[in-house]
Amino acid sequence: TKQYKGLYFILGGTVSALRKQDIKKLRIKELESRIKDHSEIKEIILAINPTADGEATTLYLERILKPFNKKITRLGRGLPKGGELEYADEQTLKDALDRRK
Questions:
Q1: Which pairs count as long-range contacts for 10-18, CB under 8 Å and 24+ apart, including other chains?
Q2: Which one of the record's GO molecular function terms can you name (predicted)?
Q3: Domain encompassing residue 31
Q4: What does pTM read for this prediction?
Q5: What is the pLDDT of residue 12?
Q6: How many domains in the chain?
Q7: Are 95 and 83 in contact (CB under 8 A)?
Q8: Is 9 within a domain?
Q9: 24-34 pLDDT, tens per residue?
């Protein structure tokens, strides 16, 4: 989209809330090395699908990345452009209200 000018890192999967072995598939060591090698990084933006597995992954990453003392944020969530309110689920509406501008 050419909207972001920083570094990015592809994690390689998500963590299932039910399957702890998924953690081994993630590229955590590589991510930690990337953060250590780029001291200029001020913020880590977690761009992960808003699913149950995505939420579990986000919570896991927030815990793992906390010692780096960087600002950790998530992409905004809410209603898609061109979306119809009547088709929005309860969680999407809640997220849109919580993150309104």
A1: 11/48, 11/57, 11/61, 14/48, 14/49, 14/51, 14/53, 14/54, 14/56, 14/57, 15/53, 15/56, 15/57, 15/60, 16/53, 16/56, 17/52, 17/53, 17/55, 17/56
A2: zinc ion binding
A3: 20-98
A4: 0.76
A5: 85
A6: 1
A7: no
A8: no
A9: 788 999 999 99
